């Protein structure tokens, strides 16, 4: 399994906008090797908020195929030159190979 993580820091009160964007149905769900996507918010009392988007793939090769796909590239080209929303402070990502998964005993 292969995981892509994106951490998005936003100004207070704006996490829901990012959650909504990444929770909508899209073409990624139709891609070969896509397992699932999880959208999470960090529990904070006040101040900047954080959204984590985790996308799980069957393999790194499936993720690479998606990254190079016409649909993925077209989505990024459509936003080329547009400023990021003012509420986004910063965004960073990481790619991870999964070595072990534990599940509950039933």
Topology:
Layout: E1 2-10, H1 15-23, E2 34-41, E3 49-57, H2 60-67, H3 70-78, E4 88-97
Antiparallel strand pairs: 1-3, 1-4, 2-3
Walk me through the structure.
- By secondary structure, the protein is of the alpha+beta class.
- The chain has a domain at about 1-55 and about 85-100: 2-Layer Sandwich (Alpha-Beta Plaits).
- Helices cover about 25% and strands about 35% of the residues.
- The chain is built from three helices and four strands, in the order E-H-E-E-H-H-E.
- The two termini are about 25 Å apart.
Question: Can you describe this structure in just a few lines?
Answer:
Helices cover 25% and strands 34% of the residues. It is of the alpha+beta class.
What structural keywords apply?
106 residues; alpha+beta; Alpha-Beta Plaits; 4-stranded antiparallel sheet; 3 helices; 34% strand; globular
What's the SSE pattern? Answer: EHEEHHE
Per DSSP E runs of 2 or more residues, the count of β-strands stands at 4
Return the CATH topology of one domain.
Alpha-Beta Plaits
* Shape estimate: globular
Query: How would you classify the helix and strand content by structural class?
Result: alpha+beta
Q: Please give the radius of gyration in angstroms.
A: 15 Å
Strand content: 25-35%
Distance between the termini: 23 Å
How do the strands line up in the largest sheet? 2-3-1-4
Low-pLDDT stretches: none
The percent range for helix content is: 10-25%
Number of helices: 3
- Report the top-level CATH class of one domain: Alpha Beta
Based on the structure given, which CATH architecture of one domain is correct?
2-Layer Sandwich
The main pleated sheet reads as:
4 strands, antiparallel
């Amino acid at each position: 399994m292969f995981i892509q993580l994106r951490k998005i820091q936003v100004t207070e009160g704006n996490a829901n906008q990012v959650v909504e964007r990444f929770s909508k149905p899209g073409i990624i769900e139709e891609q070969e090797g896509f397992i699932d996507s999880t959208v999470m918010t960090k529990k904070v009392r006040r101040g900047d908020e954080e959204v984590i988007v985790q996308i799980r793939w069957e393999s790194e090769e499936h993720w690479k195929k998606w990254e190079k796909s016409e649909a993925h590239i077209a989505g990024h080209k459509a936003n080329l030159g547009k400023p990021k929303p003012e509420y986004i402070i910063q965004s960073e990502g990481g790619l991870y190979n999964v070595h072990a998964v534990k599940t509950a005993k039933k």
